[in-house]
């Protein structure tokens, strides 16, 4: 069965600075990623607004292939 994991990307300065999740195999523990969705939660938007868009986190939802 597939498994879905969510990781937070810590970004800043209008998404220009910060670590980005590029190794999806690491997120999926060595399996292939079959779907990736990026979205901002209400908390992410609030954090961005509170910091004047200097801190702009985003949640990445990765669906991993079957084992």
Question: What descriptive keywords fit this protein?
Answer:
67 residues; alpha+beta; 3-stranded antiparallel β-sheet; two-stranded antiparallel ribbon; 2 helices; 19% helix; 37% strand; elongated
Task: Summarize the SSE layout with pairings.
Elements: E1 3-9, E2 11-12, E3 17-18, H1 24-27, E4 33-39, H2 42-50, E5 58-64
Antiparallel strand pairs: 1-5, 2-3, 4-5
Strand content: 35-45%
Rounded radius of gyration (Å): 13 Å
Poorly predicted ranges = none
Strand/helix succession: EEEHEHE
N-to-C CA distance: 7 Å
Structural class: alpha+beta
* Helix proportion: 10-25%
Strand arrangement within the widest β-sheet reads 1-5-4
Gross geometry: elongated
Overall residue-averaged pLDDT value: 90
Specify the biggest β-sheet: 3 strands, antiparallel
Total number of helices: 2
Q: How many strands appear in the DSSP assignment? A: 5
Describe this structure in words.
This protein has 67 residues and is of the alpha+beta class. The chain is 19% helix and 37% strand. The chain contains 2 helices and 5 strands, in the order βββαβαβ. β2 and β3 form a beta hairpin. The chain is elongated. The mean pLDDT is 90.
Brief summary:
By secondary structure, the chain is an alpha+beta fold. It is built from two helices and five strands.
